[in-house]
Write a structure and sequence with these properties.
This protein is of the alpha+beta class. The protein folds into five domains: 2-78; 86-281 and 335-353 and 517-557, no CATH class; 282-334, no CATH class; 355-502, no CATH class; 567-685. 41% of the residues lie in helices and 19% in strands. It contains 25 helices and 21 strands. The chain has a seven-stranded mixed sheet with strand order 1-2-5-4-3-7-6. The chain starts with a helix and ends in a 6-residue tail after the last strand.
């Protein structure tokens, strides 16, 4: 009954009232059913057992007696699954309000609503086996001998922080993501009036396959976006107090095996540039003279800067000195960041970069629009026109894994405005596949096309899962040549987000790969909350309603169980190994196995169209087989004709090599893709994205 109640109360598409209606309907049905059982079985129960029988049935009926939300919350509190959110008034604003059916000028309270942070983190790590897997992952990262940086705790920021905090306690890093979302119709009369800002903790050291799950975001605070006009000292006061307390005293995590005390450490902020500048106390106007939160360069210098000036980098010393100057025009700093009060906290390193906002919603829509406009000018003809580009885009074979990211048609006004209208996911997909869509229509050696291919390569390099020292230097060179080529071809100065790219190599050395700060999953979390906000008709205390819903979600998620790998087969059947004619001695011929042509592995869809890379060989799945609880893919090898630098893909021969391999999917290190049918009649595969 407990999980059923939480299942309804946590559902994003149900208001809490509607969820409670469902619970009450089930209660009435259950009570009627139990009453019927009692009546029909009464004659079969011995007289001496009647009292015990009635008592058992009454206990069952009482379990279904939750009629109001107060009763639900009281019941959950007895199970340590609900704690009332805190409400802090941070500002009283004079506004027209309704009082006793009269419109008068009164005080409207601006509030910060917070679930209990300690309870939320405790529930998160008390999910079955999650803490054990996290500690195991941290140990593997700390003992990695490859010399590569693949996680935040391998960067210089965390190492410096641990030196200051000491190594006696189990410190676990957390990032704080924040973003605004409009709960009302974005085209309606009330657009922006009830806009909300959500703040969520995420843990960068949980196993990679759990990071992208929406249930891995821990909600810690919600406010009306108008509250962000108030200085952060007041907005974040309670959150900072709680994070300091948790970092000093820790939280006891109890699972089925033992009790472990962890010490959560707030290390970094993620989100859009406007929010990060606001939190750090920097100017939120990117037309200011010193808008960069990582360096002291002037606007005119940044417009032509093609490599990072290490002498102008900000640090804690010059940041605090600039705060004392109280001169925003000279320093770019409006006020002191309140999070500096956290132990061993470096605000410059904490304000990292989000490649989704910088690239997917900034640089790419702008530069790709310029590229297409110039190509259309240079090649303008019936065989290469905007209609041809849109036609090829719409007819392109996106495959199983990208079919949900097909962008809308490009219009002439998009090109004139120098900005494509696409979501970040659509933009990345478009850039990834554009060479295969129109590459055969572009002359080899075209300067504009060379620029685009350099940009595309840069995007892929930014999203690498790990970096060696040599690769970080290579990234510096790629950014240098990109910026130089951009100014040479288009004759324009660099945009603020292009300047941010210069700091990416340094940010990776300090904070690990920027893939972990990508904001797409955070925006998906906001989209989930937006669903609930739209079915909830309470607009007076919307933040409080959202927080209560998130508390129910956290309680429901506390029943999740975590394993290193998870798989399932669709429409499977059982056969003996010898019936499969496998060319391997890995299994006994008379062993029983489960097989299917489709299924999932660690949340990745896999079927007979799935392709991936094993070392240097591309393979295509024939079917899946499970033996002794381990899932394998029986794959055929694909023959590669050649790699096209111009279309940035491998041309694959239409017929396989007839060579098959049994592959343990636990060793998969790149994301699956599918073969793409190209306009030139060939089959193509892009270089895979590694995990």
């Amino acid at each position: 009954m407990l999980k059923l109640v939480l299942r309804f109360m946590s559902d994003s598409v149900l208001s809490r009232k509607k969820a409670l209606d469902f619970v009450n309907d089930i209660n009435r049905f259950s009570c009627t059913l139990l009453a019927g059982i009692k009546s029909n079985l009464k004659t079969f129960v011995k007289p001496e057992s009647q009292a015990d029988f009635d008592k058992i049935l009454q206990q069952l009926i009482e379990k279904f007696s939750l009629k109001t939300e107060d009763q639900v919350q009281t019941f959950l509190k007895t199970k340590n699954l609900f704690k009332d959110p805190s409400v802090e008034i941070v500002h009283n604003q004079l506004e027209h309000v309704t009082h006793l059916n009269q419109r008068v000028i009164g005080h409207k309270k601006q509030k910060v609503i917070m679930p209990c942070v300690q309870t939320s983190i405790k529930q998160f790590f008390e999910r079955d086996n999650l803490l054990n897997l996290t500690i195991k992952n941290m140990n593997q990262l700390n003992h990695d001998k490859s010399g590569k940086i693949s996680n935040y705790i391998q960067g210089s920021s965390w190492k410096k922080k641990i030196e200051e905090l000491g190594k006696d306690n189990l410190y676990i890093p957390f990032f704080l993501y924040n973003d605004d979302f409009d709960s009302d119709n974005s085209l309606g009369a009330h657009k922006g009036k009830n806009s909300q800002c959500g703040f969520y903790l995420s843990c960068p050291v949980i196993p990679n396959r759990f990071k992208g799950k929406l249930n891995s975001f821990i909600p810690v605070m919600f406010i009306n976006s108008k509250v962000k006009k108030i200085r952060p000292q007041r907005v974040f006061r309670e959150l900072i107090k709680k994070m300091i307390l948790l970092q000093r005293e820790g939280i006891e995590i109890t699972d089925s095996h033992n009790t472990t005390r962890i010490y959560p450490v707030l290390c970094m902020f993620t989100g859009d540039n406007l929010s990060l500048n606001y939190i750090g106390g920097f100017t939120t106007s990117f037309s200011s003279n010193h808008y960069c939160r990582w360096c002291l360069s002037s606007k005119s210098e940044m417009q032509e800067m093609i490599s990072e000036d290490e002498t102008s980098l900000r640090n804690m010393n010059n940041y605090l000195n600039d705060v004392k100057k109280s001169n925003m025009k000279e320093t770019g700093i409006k006020f002191r960041c309140p999070f500096i009060d956290l132990p061993a906290f470096d605000i410059i390193n904490a304000l990292n970069f989000d490649p989704m906002h910088d690239l997917g919603e900034g640089i790419l829509p702008y530069t790709v629009a310029l590229v297409l406009a110039k190509l259309l000018t240079d090649y303008g003809s019936e065989s290469f026109s905007l209609e041809v580009i849109n036609s090829r885009k719409n007819l392109f074979d996106y495959g199983l894994y990208k079919m949900n990211n097909i962008p809308e048609d490009i219009t002439r006004s998009n090109l004139n405005e120098e900005m494509l209208k696409m979501s970040s996911c659509e933009m990345f997909t478009f850039v990834d596949f554009l060479p295969m869509m129109i590459g055969d229509l572009i002359q080899i050696g075209d300067k504009t096309w060379k620029y685009f291919l350099k940009l595309r390569k840069l995007v892929g390099f930014v999203y690498k899962p790990s970096y060696s020292k040599e690769e970080i230097n290579e990234l510096k060179n790629m950014i240098y040549h990109h910026h130089k080529m951009f100014m040479d071809i288009f004759g324009k100065t660099l945009k603020p987000k292009m300047h941010h790219l210069l700091h990416y190599p340094t940010a990776i050395v300090r904070n690990g790969p920027l893939k972990s700060t990508d904001g797409r999953r955070g925006e998906s979390k906001n989209r989930e909350i937006k669903q609930y906000a739209r079915v909830n008709f309470n607009r007076k205390q919307l933040s409080l309603s959202i927080v209560k819903k998130e508390i129910y979600k956290s309680s429901y998620y506390s029943f999740l169980k975590y394993t290193e790998h998870h798989f399932s087969l669709i429409k499977s059947k059982y056969v003996y190994i010898h019936q499969l004619n496998l060319n391997t001695t890995m299994f006994s011929r008379n062993e029983l196995c489960e097989t299917s042509t489709s299924g999932t592995f660690d949340d990745l869809k896999i079927n007979t169209k799935t392709c991936f890379k094993i070392v240097e060989t591309f393979v295509k799945v024939q079917y899946l087989v499970v033996v002794n609880g381990i899932i394998y893919a029986v794959v055929e090898h694909l023959d590669v004709e050649c790699f096209s630098d111009h279309m940035v893909c491998y041309f694959i021969k239409p017929h396989g090599s007839n060579l098959t391999t049994v592959f343990d999917l636990r060793l998969l290190d790149n994301f699956p893709q599918t073969l793409h049918k190209l306009s030139n009649g060939k089959l193509g595969l892009v270089e895979p994205e590694y995990m």
